[in-house]
Amino acid sequence: xxxxxxxxxxxxxxxxxxxxxxxxxxxxxxxxxxxxxxxxxxxxxxxxxxxxxxxxxxxxxxxxxxxxxxxxxxxxxxxxxxxxxxxxxxxxxxxxxxxxxxxxxxxxxxxxxxxxxxxxxxxxxxxxxxxxxxxxxxxxxxxxxxxxxxxxxxxxxxxxxxxxxxxxxxxxxxxxxxxxxxxxxxxxxxxxxxxxxxxxxxxxxxxxx
Length: 209
Prior knowledge:
Layout: H1 2-9, H2 11-22, H3 27-53, H4 59-71, E1 76-78, E2 85-87, H5 97-100, H6 105-126, H7 133-151, H8 155-178, H9 182-207
Antiparallel strand pairs: 1-2
């Protein structure tokens, strides 16, 4: 039914409404509290990602990279009419902090989940030589849960993540086979199958629901 499909896509706002009602908050107050909370979580996750990417850098350099990520802006254009100073931009760009942290809860939630999934996938691939099959199943399950939540309101993000994930998986699988590391190749294959099979199955079910 169309009403069920609507709930499926907008469940977040129903949840926020329940939280606001429980805490005796108005809808506007609840909305902005969620924006603030999500923005804070997103900023923390960005810093965690920077620390992962810049492992060898000093803490001060990691902080500087974090601030640059948060507050960097594109070059500006000086115009003689209308607004005197305009920033270079394009549709759906993330050129300014106001676009990286839009005051829309479900946009921020999609950014958080997307970065969290990528972070988990990257960490898993880094630790493939040390992980057991049981650990891979657990990590694959956790990753899949976040992907399925993301699929309910931002399927485009899931498509992009899965494309990058499959390309990375194929590269690592071939690399381990070439290096005669069959055990590591089998772990990559298992992790890839767990995530890909469930995601595609659920996506098809949602498509034809």
